[in-house]
Amino acid sequence: MSSLKANSEALCLRAAFEQAGATPVDCAVLQPAETLLDLYGEDIRTRAYVTQDPARGEQMLRPDFTVPVVQMHMADGAEPARYTYSGVVFRRQEENPERDSEYLQTGYEVFDRTDPEAADAEVFALFAETLGGEGLRAATGDMGILTAAVSSLKTSPQRRAALLRHIWRPRRFRALMDRYSGRSAVPQTRKALLASSDPLDIGVPVIGLRSEVEIADRIEALRADAAEPPISQDQVDMIDEVLKVSETCPYALANLRDIAVDMPEMEQAVDRFARRCDALAARGVNVDKLDFEASYGRTSMEYYDGFVFGFYSEARPDLPPVASGGRYDALTQRLGQGKSIPAVGGVIRPDILLQVREAQS
Amino acid sequence: MTIKLGVPSKGRLMEKTFDWFGERGVTLSRTGSEREYSGAVDGVDGVELVLLSAGEIPRELAAGRIDLGVTGTDLVREKLVQWDQKVEPLAELGFGFADLIIAVPACWVDVDTLDDLDAAAAAFRAKHGFRMRIATKYHRLVRDYLRMGGVADYQLVDSQGATEGTIRNLTAEAVADITSTGETLRANHLKILDEPPVLKSQATLFRSRLSDKSDENREIMQTLCNTLGV
């Protein structure tokens, strides 16, 4: 694959995004590692290159543009705003050394609080049009639906918070559901702790930054949790039903409406999905044929919290998605230092697009 | 042509390795002065002894600069990406036992499982404004282990020695380190999590999958393996 060809393809794509009303922006290749580590945790180290600067501390070769673009917008961006960018990103590929560790991304990001579902549709329709057929299959989902379902569970706020925290880690999420619904046994160590009248009195010195008060607080929380009744089977089934939704948009919508009858708190999220379908149809997207999967986007980047989408090659299923994106309202809040704004965007990989075209011809 | 055998250059690990080979009819010895890192092999022809730091043996095997090497499983797994494509374990030598474990202050009576560690990390981050710090030198192994265990809200801080002391010095809240008896941990008021260890390690004889495989070298390797019974 000639990188020159990919470069000129990237510029064409960026021009198309500018044509659609976006302002071109650029970001530094070296990003402070602290921000990214704080957002993603240790796992980012397995995906990004970390380097050391004696004066600036740990730096990372940018693993994507979204975070620096959000930071730039939150610092001094006017509203509403549309941005486009094009450049290389760097990803370590420990598990798949055959994959590229340096590749181009051309992106389009929308910061607009007027009508989030219309903005979702704008981004998706623009990507569909820019990619132009190409024998691509579109996948869509909505992290907001699952989040709303978990938020509506009839259980303690602490349990809901713990489940929401692990929504991106399906295995851990499942283990927590099993524990809260009484399907897995309480570990022996926990039983012993709860049975003890003065568990802190074990005759060892308190060392480290985590104080005795913090330990006592958690024991208190564990006692409260032990007194909490298990999450009912109906509610567990409901979450499973939501996770299983995978069909074309109209059927998925009807299905979710049925589930929401028993979970009224889900209604708003389902309404948003309905409005998005309308907005997509208004932009000429054939919603009747568009796939929707409620668990789509669950294992990828943690910052998507609403609409998510990806475009895949049908002829080359071995390739990563040609394009992907989604809504990340919460990210703007975390990087906004008190401010926030609804935001949605996505990226195209020009190198993958060229390979897909090659396979087509 | 010769094949090269890499052996730890000092301490008990070297002595025990010499013993293990000796019991199988291959005599390894240091030559020259006490401080000179050169050695000799008797009992099999065409084998050259290379004395190296145990920590460098994985890298030398992966590069194919040595054909055989004795080192800990922990070092091979930590230092080599896709280790099983680069080296093949031929024999576990039955010494140098060590478990890579996660330990927390013994006063953390509420933390015994990875589940607990994760919950404590979430509360810690909310209270202190930064992720719970785990001191270790085994970054890759520990990160993989914690990811599989579904632990979030932690960060690894590098510690190349005296790791057990980091908690008292307030530079970490927990540690991930090698232990054989657990005595140092107890002396520092730490306890091991009630979970399977990150890794169970022992001294192991590895073969490089990437070193020179001329017919002559193959033959020497075969003779050596037959003599050792591996």
Automatic annotation (TrEMBL), chain B:
GO molecular function: ATP phosphoribosyltransferase activity
GO terms for biological process, alphabetical: L-histidine biosynthetic process
Domain ATP phosphoribosyltransferase catalytic, residue spans: 54-226
Protein source organism: Thalassococcus halodurans
UniProt-recorded name of the protein: ATP phosphoribosyltransferase
Function, in words: Catalyzes the condensation of ATP and 5-phosphoribose 1-diphosphate to form N'-(5'-phosphoribosyl)-ATP (PR-ATP). Has a crucial role in the pathway because the rate of histidine biosynthesis seems to be controlled primarily by regulation of HisG enzymatic activity.
One GO CC annotation: cytoplasm
Keywords, sorted A to Z: Amino-acid biosynthesis, Glycosyltransferase, Histidine biosynthesis, Transferase
Broad enzyme group: transferase
Signal peptide range: none
